[in-house]
Input
Amino acid sequence: MRKSQPKKIPLAPDPKFNDKLVTRFVNNLMWEGKKSGAYNIFYDALDKVAKITGEDGYEVWKKALANITPGVEVRSRRIGGATFQIPSEVRPDRKISLSVKWMIRYSRERNGRSMSDKLANEIVAASKGEGAAFKKKEDTHRMAEANKAFAHFRV
Output
């Protein structure tokens, strides 16, 4: 049996919006411990989003994250030699984690000049219900729907 899980260290809210979710996003965006660089990229992206949409960049970002947050996912489980994809609900903490990681991953894969440009474009696309991160959520939900027959195997 494993020992008890380590305590979650509380995050400090970010300086501009005083939001812990922003800090969590920036922590995922950060490379090689360059947090101030990650904050610069994020704030630049929000400024660009505000310029593109004409709305508050922070609100558009929150809407985009809400749009790409998954409700269900499939988990592999071996039963009697066969592996089944079993649909299960996503824990609240994991929902946020997945949506943040998807947004950052697909904005990195986009083509654009700088990371802030790519991130801004992905945020705008996700807020409209488009883009690769939104497609990933749709695919995840579709996969869970297709494997609904195995839901009775859930643990």
